[in-house]
Amino acid sequence: MAVSMVVRVVIPSGEEPALVELPFRQLVGTIDWDDASSDTYRGATNTQAHTFTSAGSFDIEITGTAERYGNGCGGVLAGREYITAVLSWGDLGTDSGFVSLSGALFENVNLTSVPATLPIAVTDLQCTFRGATSFNGDISTWDTSHVTDMSRMFLRATSFDRDLGSWNITSLTAAEQMFTQGALSLGNYGALLRGWAAQAVLAGVWLHVPQLYDSASAGARATLVAAGWTINDLGPVVVPTYTG
User: Fold this and answer.
1) Is the per-residue pLDDT at 240 higher than 80?
2) Residue 197: phi, psi to the nearest 5?
3) Domain residue spans of the chain
């Protein structure tokens, strides 16, 4: 029996009718919009649109196959503010052809929750949470071992502050502006540096983090730089000295 991907949208009273677009590429399957209507797709469209005529919470169920969920780093979609959660990846979570979440949750400003697992074949997380200003979910358990691109993943995600030091980044080749204009704390940036420096990383990665690093993380940062990384951050924490 097919297991659905589930996306929750909440339409506030007074904002109906509300147009919501979903960014599936090459979707072959069915979307049940949870309002007694559904649509079937055969891969010809890059977005799937629906107008909700009443207010309320709707759990949209998607069954079938797709190559990606997301409209890249420039794709602002109608109704993005109504998406509050991805409850399940469904069968797409184990589909070897589902390879990208680039821009999946771009400017979903009311998003608060996503699954604790990442679809197994995803390699592209570019701009996934870009502008998702309410999101601070725990995604530390995501298996990112196949991911090559995390650039702009949390750009302007101004609530996100989690320890991602446990992520497997051995396939990572791009992380430009990953946390630019974000909220990653000193402690969680340090945990990231220490966890990532302990791995066999690829050379040539650019990482941007608008945060200081402390003395406990300086060695890890130096290890990544020695491995061929370019790290743009705010530099070391300066401990004041007192004389007299």
Assistant:
1) no
2) -70, -20
3) 1-96, 123-233
